[in-house]
């Protein structure tokens, strides 16, 4: 497939993509939503398939490609979709970052205008096969230099950028040079083709490149424009001087000084003295090349060197003006030939551009840039979905983590958190006086009570209200048990620490009468001062194993719940008849705990 065919294919794909992108987005959203629903279902039914799921989680032994369990495949699908959009969304994000430079130039514009400008940059890049970052810079240079905005800037960038690429000139240097030329010579987009023909002729006739021309044109453009000289005349003079100087920079300086001296009184008088007026019949200043050709005829009509020298001496001024007069003394026909070649070279530009368009490397570059723009457009459309995919990834990690750890693993995790927070109390018990001990113990008991209270409801009545659907009771009960296993592990370990703290304190301090001396005898519950009570509780009673109420004051408390289960639990003709014995036992235990807690906090 040749380059032209590739481009045509991409154009067709572009149209199809734009037409079907919304549908693709809707289908993707639907697919992501189905993944989320499937994960939720798998979460709530994990108890039934816990062993099978654990066996299939790829992080614990099985190869990822061999995963057959739905949860593993769902996780794989989410990760694959995420990777699929990460590339394009990153392209879109990079483009947005690059576009900020241009957006900052238009802070006075509305959001709608900025969005339209962004769309314009992407369309320019795709239609012409430009690099998007270069397009942004081109838009910026044209707008900041000329003050133009919108559609006219787009047409300038597209025409000049394409010309620069075809002529193998620097894209942004040439556009920036064009913008300066437009600002100095005061022309609009209607003269861009003429401007490019003049540049092409300057490079072909003179000793310079497009990049050099773009850099030095601003040196002499202002002086030329102030004397009503066109960019074509200015470029023609530069081309002439590049042949007679060592560098383009020197030629540009001569061109500038020549134009500066062209309308000085001394120069006007000198031209008049040799029979040449610098003004045409309409009173406008003649172009520099016209004056040079008229002066050249005067020199050609002189037979003796003395007359030539005498004519040259009529002019005085800068090196540029002297270089102009010196070039006009030519009798070989080179001056006239140079100007004629300059004019004829402009006609060759179209043929050169057509040959360049057929260059395979040029076509491949266009194709690469078009593909890059498509990636940005796809990424922009999918960017909102990236956040949804991220949420699904987090959910997947959470679920896989739970399944990998299992109930026992989550239980141990909670116990570890309790150890990290409270285990130092046991070692420091020997240094605690009675007040410090009471304070630490009260804080520990309060944390136990709060942790127990924070667990999700697991009794039948409250869980029914929580789910709104009795069918999901058993699956939710099992899921909640797993999710609460961390909290249970924490509570269980805190109770162990509580028991050890009491025993160690009694044994090592003689119940607070003889604590060991330490530089800081107050051992705070939380060294980082994160939460906890600072109020000194009432003196501790003798029975430290009793249940406490507010955790501020320790009391003996006896709760008799014998009558609560007198005669057993009636499961006939109630919602309990479908429960397994172990589930009923757990339900009854939880209800007892809740009764004790209610009595406890009421004192």
Description:
The chain has 603 residues and is an all-alpha fold. The protein is built from 23 helices and no strands.
What brief labels describe this structure?
elongated, 603 residues, mainly alpha
Task: Give a brief outline of the structure.
The chain has helices at residues 3-44, 46-56, 70-104, 111-128, 132-146, 151-166, 171-185, 192-205, 210-226, 231-244, 248-262, 265-273, 288-300, 305-312, 319-328, 334-345, 349-357, 360-422, 424-428, 434-454, 460-467, 473-509, 581-602. By secondary structure, it is mainly alpha-helical. The longest helix has 63 residues, at 360-422.
Rg, nearest Å: 44 Å
Please state the structural category: mainly alpha
Principal-axis shape equals elongated
Strand content range: under 5%
Q: Specify the biggest β-sheet.
A: none
Give the rounded overall mean pLDDT.
76
Distance between the termini: 87 Å
Number of helices: 23
Q: How many strands appear in the DSSP assignment? A: 0
Proportion in helices: over 70%
Low-confidence stretches at least 5 residues in length (pLDDT < 50)? Answer: 42-76, 457-479, 520-554
Order of helices and strands: HHHHHHHHHHHHHHHHHHHHHHH
Oligomer: single chain
Tell me the layout of helices and strands.
Layout (H helix, E strand, L loop, with lengths): L2 H42 L1 H11 L13 H35 L6 H18 L3 H15 L4 H16 L4 H15 L6 H14 L4 H17 L4 H14 L3 H15 L2 H9 L14 H13 L4 H8 L6 H10 L5 H12 L3 H9 L2 H63 L1 H5 L5 H21 L5 H8 L5 H37 L71 H22 L1
Helix pairs in contact: 1-3, 1-18, 3-5, 3-18, 4-5, 4-6, 4-18, 5-6, 5-7, 6-7, 7-9, 8-10, 8-16, 9-10, 9-11, 10-11, 11-15, 13-15, 18-22, 20-22
């Amino acid at each position: 497939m040749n380059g032209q065919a590739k481009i045509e294919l991409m154009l067709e794909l572009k149209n199809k993509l734009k037409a079907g992108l919304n549908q693709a987005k809707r289908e993707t959203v639907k697919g992501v939503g189905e993944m989320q629903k499937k994960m939720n279902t798998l979460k709530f039914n994990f108890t039934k398939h816990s062993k099978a799921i654990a066996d299939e989680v790829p992080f614990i032994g099985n190869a990822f490609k061999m995963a057959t369990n739905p949860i593993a495949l769902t996780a794989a699908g989410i990760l694959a979709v995420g990777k699929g959009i990460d590339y394009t969304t990153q392209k879109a994000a990079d483009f947005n970052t690059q576009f900020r430079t241009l957006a900052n130039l238009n802070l006075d514009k509305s959001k709608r205008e900025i969005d339209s400008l962004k769309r314009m940059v992407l369309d320019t890049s795709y239609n012409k096969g430009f690099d998007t970052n270069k397009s942004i810079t081109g838009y910026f240079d044209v707008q900041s230099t000329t003050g133009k905005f919108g559609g006219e800037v787009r047409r300038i960038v597209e025409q000049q950028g394409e010309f620069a690429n075809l002529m193998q000139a620097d894209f942004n240097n040439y556009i920036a040079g064009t913008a300066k030329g437009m600002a100095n010579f005061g022309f609009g987009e209607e003269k861009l083709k003429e401007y490019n023909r003049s540049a092409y002729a300057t490079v072909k006739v003179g000793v310079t490149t497009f990049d050099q021309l773009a850099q030095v044109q601003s040196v002499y453009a202002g002086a030329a424009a102030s004397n009503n000289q066109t960019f074509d005349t200015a470029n023609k003079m530069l081309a002439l001087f590049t042949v007679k100087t060592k560098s383009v920079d020197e030629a540009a300086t001569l061109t500038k000084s020549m134009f500066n001296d062209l309308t000085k009184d001394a120069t006007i008088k000198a031209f008049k003295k040799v029979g040449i007026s610098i003004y045409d019949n309409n009173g406008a200043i003649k172009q520099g090349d016209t004056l040079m050709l008229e002066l050249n005829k005067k020199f050609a009509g002189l037979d003796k060197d003395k007359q030539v020298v005498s004519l040259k001496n009529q002019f005085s001024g800068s090196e540029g003006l002297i270089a102009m007069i010196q070039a006009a003394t030519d009798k070989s026909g080179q001056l006239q030939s140079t100007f004629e070649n300059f004019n004829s070279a402009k006609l060759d530009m179209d043929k050169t551009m057509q040959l360049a368009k057929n260059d395979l490397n040029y076509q491949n570059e266009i194709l690469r840039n078009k593909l890059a723009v498509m990636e940005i457009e796809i990424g922009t459309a999918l960017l909102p979905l990236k956040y949804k995919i991220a949420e699904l990834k987090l959910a997947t990690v959470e679920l896989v983590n739970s399944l990998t750890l299992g109930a026992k693993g989550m239980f141990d995790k909670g116990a570890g958190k309790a150890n990290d927070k409270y285990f130092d109390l046991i070692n420091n018990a020997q240094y605690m006086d009675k007040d410090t001990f009471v304070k630490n113990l009260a804080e520990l008991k309060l944390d136990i009570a709060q942790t127990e209270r924070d667990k999700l409801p697991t009794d039948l009545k409250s869980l029914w209200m929580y789910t709104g659907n009795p069918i999901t009771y058993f699956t939710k009960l099992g899921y909640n048990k797993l999710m609460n296993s961390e909290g249970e592990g924490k509570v269980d370990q805190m109770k162990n620490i509580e028991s050890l703290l009491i025993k160690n304190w009694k044994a090592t301090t003689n119940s607070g009468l003889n604590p060991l001396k330490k530089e800081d005898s107050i051992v705070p519950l939380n060294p980082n001062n994160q939460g906890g009570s600072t109020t000194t509780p009432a003196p501790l009673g003798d029975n430290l194993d009793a249940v406490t109420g507010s955790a501020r004051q320790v009391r003996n408390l006896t709760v008799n719940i014998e009558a609560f289960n007198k005669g057993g639990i009636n499961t006939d003709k109630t919602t309990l008849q479908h429960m397994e014995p172990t589930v009923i036992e757990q339900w009854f235990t939880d209800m007892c705990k809740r009764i004790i807690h209610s009595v406890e906090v009421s004192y």
